[in-house]
């Protein structure tokens, strides 16, 4: 009888401890998942559309973007890729075939990482497009 | 003695049930937090810069974007706002003063939600800018 009580009590204690451990680790993971992009610098590369211009999304997604991302190191928080689609408004051509964007913590670090690799980056354009992209830098407000 | 055993056993059962409930709800919330933007439709509104053009970011962020977001309902997954900043390349003007973007599940639902409110949206432009924005639709690849 006494040993049964001790056994039950031990089970209860283990259960309580395990339960509180689980809660603690959830709080940590929830905090990480709520990190925002606000304040980051976004470097956007836009590929304008016009007649005769082409864009190979598969190469861009599997080769070019990972190559450039590799130059950026820990300054890079994430990168995104969009494919232009018709906007449904008649007689309005596609403004851009594709847009890539790098979200970084520091613009000057971004520039310093890109500079020695600029020739390689530009040489790679020909592997997926025949248009010169437009570059834009912005700050994420929301 | 017997009642103490019953009490302890009840506590243990309650503990176990609560623990498994917590785990189940964590799985649900973790699934939500790991959802990607891939496949979403992104409607981007870009405000081009040129001499004499202005943009009131505070109004845009606190009034205009929430107003339009309100029209979109559950189709809207999230929206973002960026502020154009100089790109560091000499003699290259800012392409855009600001860019807003809505990430939605369905383009046709977006268009259907905007259509009855188009006049109100356009009338609101004058409250924060003197430029007509450029609209672009894209699909999120990554």
TrEMBL record, chains A, B:
This is Uncharacterized protein (TIGR02118 family). Coiled coil: none annotated. It comes from the Bacteria. The keyword Signal applies. NCBIfam families: EthD family reductase (TIGR02118). InterPro entries: Dimeric_a/b-barrel, EthD_dom. It comes from Chitinophaga dinghuensis. Residues 1-20 form the signal peptide. Pfam families: EthD. Residues 58-129 form the EthD domain. One of its GO terms (molecular function) is oxidoreductase activity. Keywords: Signal.
